[in-house]
Amino acid sequence: MIAPTNKNIVVIGAGYGGVTAALRLSRLFRGHSEYQIHLVDKNPYHTLKTQLHEAAVHRREVSIDIGRIISRHKIMFHLGEVTKLGLTGKVISLGDSTIPFHVVVFALGSQSNFYSIPGLMENAFTLQSVADADRIYKHISVLCARASSENDRDRRREILRFIVGGGGLSGVEFAAELADHVAKCTQDYRIPQEDVEVLLIEALDKILPSLDESLRRQILKKLLDKRIQVLTNTKIVNCSPGTVTISPDNVLKTRTVVWTGGIRITQLTQESGMAIGSMGRIVVDEYLRSVDFSFVYAIGDNALAINPQTGKPVPAAAQFALQQGRLVAENIFADIFGERKKVYRPKVLGEVVSLGRHLAVGWLALPFIRKVRFVGFVGSLLKAAVTEKHILLLRKESRNWIVY
Ligand SMILES: Cc1cc2nc3c(=O)[nH]c(=O)nc-3n(C[C@H](O)[C@H](O)[C@H](O)COP(=O)(O)OP(=O)(O)OC[C@H]3O[C@@H](n4cnc5c(N)ncnc54)[C@H](O)[C@@H]3O)c2cc1C
Q1: Among 115, 122, 223, 254, which has the highest number of CB atoms less than 10 A from its own CB?
Q2: Does the structural domain 120-261 have CATH classification 3.40.250.10?
């Protein structure tokens, strides 16, 4: 029940940024009962989205019940899909119900961008949610089982041709995981390994463009070791049930296309009247407030925040969503109580690319040492440590021993 006298601070989206913001807000406003913190999500769980490629091969559980996260906090959770943002009336709609707000934080994350490529949205899998990961897992299981009794070699190869579109972080991590998983499945069914093909297709001239050349070379080598074919300068131009056309006129027969080639923000922000920039991200000031509405904050993938050091937009990544979640909570508190707000300065903590169960390549900024690079098993331990750090921080912020 929403008390009409309360001033509602509403966080929409319970991903990395939203959960962090809601927990910190609840702590800051603990002694101010006239303020009520609300958290809204269409799912009753928090998704460890950076681990979805592992969920797609059933290697990891990636959801944590929201109830466990907020149980020791005075946060009101609303399960529902945000369908409208009424900024002038200061109300958000979840289908038929509404939540009036005093301040709102946008943390709705992102979804796949299909760039109007014909047939892609209808025929490709995406990897944006737990449901997507489950769908992919079941599909691969069915294909491997089907291939085991297929005597026609061409048809078997078609069944076992897997195409991953997009050579960014999620595409590369998923392709590596997929190659390991399919190798294991086909081994179990005694299917010849040479009938399996995993293709990673990237429109640019390189995969993982934000990484430096030497790390990229090492990643490429590891992908090739897993028998993944990496096709750069290659565009998917059409996708139909059973085929993918890649530039210029090459039609590949396949049952599986997983599209990780781009993201965009929900249409809702475009309809809200706020200034938006590339990918539909909300243009924010140095305090992560919408430049149009002082009571609207945006974080994570939703925010088009500019790094004051480089003048460039902060990338859509979990590490920045977490930092921004903490900062907006403090800035909302400061704004309400007339204190000085903090300017957002992103800290780049590293970039780690996992390449299957025991392998990762990347770098981390460790205290006192500037940049530590790693390749291989140690890398995979560090990647696991990054995920565990998020869980530990959630445990600390939520004051609860979350099991997931
Ligand atoms: C496979 C994969 C691997 C990745 N690996 C990495 C990595 O290694 N490192 C890294 O830094 N980043 C990685 N990323 C990117 C990272 O996951 C995102 O940048 C991060 O999740 C953004 O956090 P967020 O809080 O903005 O949104 P999210 O974490 O996406 O949370 C958004 C929340 O909003 C909810 N929501 C969405 N729409 C609605 C609606 N209309 N109504 C109600 N609720 C809604 C969703 O259910 C979700 O809970 C990866 C992404 C993917 C897909």
Answers
A1: 223
A2: no
